[in-house]
Each structure stands twice: as structure tokens, then as C-alpha cells.
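Need a sequence for this fold. Nothing fancy.
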């Protein structure tokens, strides 16, 4: 390399193998050569370096007026000069520089990279200043954050720093002096997520996101159009996480060039993030404490409760204003004697109350609650609920007891009236149950005894019809047919009523068993195969579970629902029924879905009442007891029955039974 031949062979060897930067400069400050380490720290190629002067490499400032000053001072001092190099890529490098005179008015320049030490020394000072400011109450959080961001950008001029607050899974600008306002407006309030730029992704993943090229990174796909027009090409973001693992904010560094972080920069990001976490957590803690103190003060001033704080060793108590508001007794801000409480307890309650509270104080329990009567200043008594908390030292000795008294007189009277009402209701319920039982017995007996005369009426009508058929005119025959059909329908209604009255009376719980509901539905279909063939009905039965219940009664439920689904359809329409089930909250829910007529919502409850019909007997036969029977069976199993339906859109009937035995 040019200039090396002026020196001895030993110096040339040192030059080539040195771990520090070594370069040679002439008397005018023109560079004659430099080793690989010197070229690295200055950021120059060999050709560029040889065309430069001393003052082209080192920054001129108040501490470094130029080469001539360094040259003059080097003969007087052995200590290094601390100089700054601003490389072509904009990076700043600090060097300890020794200028050593050599032969023929030339100099050897030895440079040691101290960038890390200088940077972290400046960071130390910045952090001390910021933390001191954070500890002073007259500085706002924004003042502290702004100072920190500005200080970082002064240490690293090519960085653009930003702090984003994370609130309700969204990011909001907190501190940023150099990001364009238009860019901040576009990202402010953006949701966090796995592809939400650097900051939103870092907050979502709770880990650093280092993007060297915004234009190609998949996490910036939706946001690069906001960043690139302002020259923002790289962004490294680090989440600020509290001790409770909550993301408070994100600290981001932008560059107007594509750039990956170097080891020193990674250390800087991690260190700055920890300082910000300290600042933000400290602020949150202070705010929480202020709010807590303020809330407690508001409670003491605003509540109608009498809040008290008793000093147990001294036997004194401090009352809130509620002591006067609630009871009318004189109130002082300072301590009052314990008699301000004990003297006003009702005589009949005194022993029980004082023994109870003393037992808690002498024992190991922390809390005490009691309801008793407390005398007001006018001599009347209020029923109060008193709650207290015992505060003990590390040895368990009781020191204080804090608590509150509130007026529960109204609630007490309400409870008494409610207890009396419950007593009356219980008696009424017993009477009603007895009445219902009597009515059910009557319905059973009446329906049972009415069958015989109806059979006789129907029988004599049949005989009359057969014996007198030839002598009756057409009108008489029609009347006789109407009478017989009416009697037959009445007989069927009586039988259905008898069936309805017996549900739950046959000791069903003792007849319950595990029932394969798929097999049960197939039995229903097999019994009515002729009707299915006649109507062309298509019934799809999904996989159904085993359930605990009365097989006979559950057969009736499936039978009613499936036959109804086939019957109540538009003329000429092929019935399609789907039977399925699912589990929910400890219940098995069965559904029977059809493509039939549908039912208006106004009748969804009415159809479960006895003898309620939506169609005339000329359109569809039936007595109106099928769905009420289903409802009673399902409820007797501990479940419910309901439907979803609209006219013209078919119906889906649901019923539930417990998925386990009681």
C-alpha cells in the first residue's frame, strides 16, 4: 500500500496484523494508506481513502478544530484524542486516536473504536436524567417520554424513534417527534395482530419484530403504502411488557434505509425498552395509588355508611362523616373513645355483639360480620350490618380493625315480610297440589266411567244404522252418521284425556332405563311403515345417543312428533323429516325437522295446551292432545319442549332430557 515503504519492515508487519486501526498521514493531513481495520471504521474503500484528507474523515467541531491542531498537540500529550467519524452510510463512530510523529515529517495514526463505550456512556447519562425527571411530580409522563425520545435521537441521529401505547388491542401514538403527522394519523388506533406492521405484531406476539425491509416484509403488507411514501424503509419494534406480562406499549426505531440491527443496536433496543418499562409501570402505579386514595376519600365523603378505623391497643376509633349522617351523633375528625360505638348497641344485642367481635380479635380470623340494633341520637334504633377486618402484625398481634356500618332496616323488614309471604305461598302450594291431585283423580275417574255409556251409545247407533238403514232417507242417514262420528270423537278425546292424566302416575322414575334412542325411533318408523309408504315420507335418522328414561313414554314423544311432521303438510307434497340430536349444558337436545305447513309464532305456546287445534277436523284429524302429552312426558323427565317455525317454511320441534340419571 502506498506510504508503507517509508517505514521499516517491522512496522509493516505491525501494520498488516494489528487489531486496531492504523493509517499514515503526511504533514498536510493527506492520507497515505491505512490497514483493513482503519478502513472498516471509517467506512471507506482503499481508493476512496487515498483521495481524502484528515479533515474529510474526522468531524470538525469545538473539541476538534482540525488536523493542524491535532498535529501541534500530539507532541505535547501522550493521551488519545476522542474523535468522531461520520461514515458515508450516516453511521457515527467514535475513536480514540493517537497521532505519532515518524520520519520525513510523516505521522502514524492509531485508532481504537470506542463507539460502544461512548454510546452507552451517553445512554447512562440520558437514563439518569430521565429517571430523575420521572421521580419529580411536576413533570408529566409526556414530558419524560419526549425527553427520552429526543435524547435517543440525538445519540443516534439517523434513527427515528417512536413510542406507541397499547390500549384495548390497538396502538396509539404516545411519543414521536420526527415521524410525519400524516403517517401517524394513518396508523393511530390500528389493531394489533400477526400481520400488523412491526409495532402491532410485536404487541400481539409479545416479542421483538425486526423488519429490515418494509417493502418486502409480509407483516407490513397492509401498512407499507402508509410508510414508504415518507421514506420509511426499516422498522425495529420491541414490546414494553409489565411485570404482570401485560403489553403497555411498543418502542420502535425507523430508518430511511434498509437496515438490519447490529449487536450493539440490539443491546440498545433491549436496554431502552427496559427503561421505558420502568417509567411506564412507575407512572401506572402512582396513578393507581392516587386514584385509590381519591376513591377512598370520595367514599368516605359520599357514602351514607359509617366507616370506622379502630386502634385496638389504645381503644379509640376514627369515624367517617357517615357516623353523624346515619345516626346523628356528634362527629370529630380525630380519634374518639371506643364508647362512641359500644354505648349505643341495643341492650338485648350487647353481649352477643361484643363477645362476637372479641372472639375474632382474640382468634386468628381476619373478618367479622354481624347484624344488630344501634341507637340513633333521637333514641330510636336502626338495624345495621357491621363488617370489620382485623389488621395484625407479623406475630399475629391485633393492631387495628377497620370496617363499615350500614343501615339494613328496610332489608330486614323486607326479609320478614318475604318469609311470611313464603309461608303463605307454601300453604297455598300445598292446597293447590291437593286440589290438582283431586282434579286429576276426578279426570281419571270421569274419563274411565264415561267410556261405558259412550260405548253403549255407539253400539246402539251401529245397530240402528244396520237395522233401519233401508227405511231411513238420505238426510236421516247423514244425521245418524254425524252423531256416530261425534260420539266416536268424544270417546277418543276421553281416552286421550285418560292417557294424559296417567302420565307421571305410574312410578315412572322406577321404570326408567338406558334407552337407545336410535333404535326407539326406528321402532316408531317400523310401526307406522304403512303410513310412511302411503305418503312417500322420507325420514332421515342421524346418530342418536343412549339416554336414561321411560321407554314407553319416550316412544310416544317421538311417535307424536314424527307422525305430526308427516301429517301437517301441503297437499301432494312429499314429507321430508330429519331426526337429530346434540348435547348442551348437561342435556341431550333432540330435534325433529320437517318441510310441512309451518306454524305462526303467535301459536307456538298455544299448541302445547290441551284440546287446542289450529286446523279443523275436516282438514286434519286429531283431538289436540298429542303435543300436550309430549310436553308432560318431557317435563316429567326433567326437560323442556319448544319449536322453531314459520308458515310455509316447515317446523323444527326440540325437546331435551338430562344426559345422565339423577
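Here you go.
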Amino acid at each position: 500500500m502506498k506510504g508503507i515503504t517509508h517505514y521499516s519492515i517491522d512496522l509493516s508487519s505491525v501494520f498488516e496484523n494489528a487489531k486496531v486501526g492504523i493509517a499514515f498521514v503526511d504533514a498536510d493531513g493527506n492520507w497515505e494508506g491505512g490497514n483493513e481495520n482503519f478502513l472498516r471504521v471509517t467506512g471507506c474503500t482503499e481508493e476512496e481513502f487515498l483521495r481524502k484528507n484528515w479533515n474529510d474523515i474526522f468531524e470538525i467541531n469545538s473539541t476538534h478544530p482540525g488536523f493542524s491542531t491535532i498535529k501541534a498537540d500530539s507532541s505535547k500529550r501522550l493521551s488519545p484524542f476522542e474523535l468522531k467519524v461520520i461514515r458515508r452510510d450516516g453511521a457515527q463512530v467514535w475513536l480514540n486516536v493517537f497521532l505519532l510523529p515518524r520520519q520525513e515529517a510523516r505521522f502514524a495514526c492509531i485508532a481504537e473504536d470506542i463507539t460502544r463505550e461512548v454510546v452507552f456512556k451517553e445512554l447512562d447519562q440520558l437514563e439518569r436524567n430521565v429517571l430523575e425527571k420521572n421521580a419529580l411530580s411536576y413533570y408529566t409522563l409526556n414530558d419524560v417520554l419526549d425527553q427520552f425520545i429526543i435524547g435517543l435521537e440525538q445519540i443516534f441521529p439517523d434513527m427515528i424513534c417512536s413510542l406507541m401505547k397499547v390500549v384495548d388491542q390497538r396502538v396509539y401514538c404516545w411519543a414521536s417527534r420526527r415521524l410525519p403527522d400524516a403517517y401517524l394519523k394513518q396508523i393511530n388506533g390500528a389493531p394489533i395482530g400477526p400481520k400488523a406492521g412491526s409495532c402491532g405484531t410485536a404487541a400481539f406476539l409479545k416479542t421483538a419484530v425486526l423488519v429490515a425491509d418494509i417493502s418486502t416484509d409480509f407483516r407490513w403488507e397492509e401498512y407499507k403504502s402508509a410508510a414508504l411514501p415518507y421514506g420509511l424503509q426499516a422498522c425495529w419494534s420491541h414490546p414494553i411488557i409489565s411485570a404482570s406480562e401485560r403489553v403497555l406499549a411498543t418502542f420502535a426505531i425507523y430508518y430511511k434505509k434498509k437496515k438490519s440491527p447490529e449487536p450493539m443496536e440490539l443491546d440498545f433496543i433491549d436496554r431502552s425498552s427496559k427503561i421505558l418499562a420502568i417509567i411506564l409501570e412507575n407512572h401506572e402505579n402512582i396513578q393507581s395509588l392516587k386514584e385509590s386514595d381519591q376513591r377512598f376519600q370520595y367514599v368516605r365523603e359520599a357514602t351514607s355508611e359509617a366507616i370506622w378505623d379502630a386502634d385496638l391497643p389504645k381503644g379509640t376509633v376514627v369515624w367517617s362523616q357517615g357516623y353523624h349522617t346515619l345516626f346523628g351523633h356528634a362527629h370529630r375528625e380525630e380519634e374518639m373513645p371506643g364508647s362512641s360505638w359500644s354505648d349505643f348497641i341495643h341492650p338485648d344485642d350487647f353481649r352477643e355483639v361484643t363477645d362476637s367481635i372479641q372472639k375474632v380479635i382474640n382468634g386468628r380470623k381476619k373478618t367479622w360480620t354481624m347484624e344488630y340494633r344501634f341507637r340513633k341520637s333521637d333514641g330510636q334504633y336502626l338495624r345495621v350490618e357491621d363488617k370489620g377486618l382485623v389488621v395484625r402484625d407479623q406475630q399475629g398481634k391485633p393492631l387495628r380493625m377497620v370496617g363499615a356500618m350500614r343501615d339494613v332496616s328496610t332489608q330486614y323488614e323486607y326479609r320478614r315480610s318475604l318469609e311470611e309471604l313464603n309461608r303463605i305461598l307454601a300453604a297455598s302450594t300445598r292446597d293447590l297440589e291437593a286440589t290438582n291431585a283431586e282434579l286429576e283423580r276426578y279426570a281419571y275417574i270421569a274419563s274411565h266411567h264415561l267410556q261405558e255409556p259412550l260405548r253403549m251409545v255407539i253400539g246402539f247407533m251401529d245397530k240402528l244404522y244396520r237395522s233401519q238403514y233401508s227405511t231411513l232417507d238420505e238426510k236421516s242417514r247423514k244425521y245418524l252418521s254425524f252423531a256416530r262420528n261425534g260420539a266416536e270423537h268424544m270417546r277418543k278425546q276421553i281416552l286421550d284425556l285418560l292417557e294424559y292424566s296417567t302420565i307421571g302416575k305410574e312410578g315412572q322414575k322406577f321404570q326408567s332405563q338406558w334407552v337407545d334412542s336410535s333404535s326407539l325411533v326406528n321402532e316408531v318408523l317400523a310401526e307406522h311403515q304403512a303410513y310412511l309408504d302411503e305418503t312417500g315420507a322420507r325420514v332421515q335418522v342421524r346418530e342418536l345417543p343412549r339416554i336414561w328414561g321411560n321407554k314407553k313414554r319416550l316412544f310416544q314423544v317421538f311417535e307424536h312428533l314424527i307422525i305430526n311432521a308427516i301429517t301437517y303438510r301441503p297437499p301432494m307434497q312429499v314429507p321430508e323429516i330429519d331426526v337429530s340430536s346434540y348435547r348442551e349444558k348437561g342435556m341431550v337436545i333432540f330435534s325433529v325437522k320437517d318441510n310441512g305447513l309451518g306454524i305462526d309464532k303467535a301459536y307456538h305456546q298455544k299448541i302445547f295446551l290441551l284440546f287446542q287445534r289450529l286446523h279443523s277436523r275436516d282438514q286434519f284429524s286429531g283431538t289436540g292432545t298429542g303435543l300436550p302429552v309430549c310436553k308432560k312426558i318431557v317435563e316429567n323427565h326433567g326437560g323442556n319442549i319448544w319449536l322453531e317455525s314459520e308458515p310455509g317454511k316447515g317446523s323444527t320441534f326440540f325437546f331435551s332430557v338430562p344426559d345422565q340419571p339423577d
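For context: Residues 1-9 have pLDDT under 50 and may be disordered.
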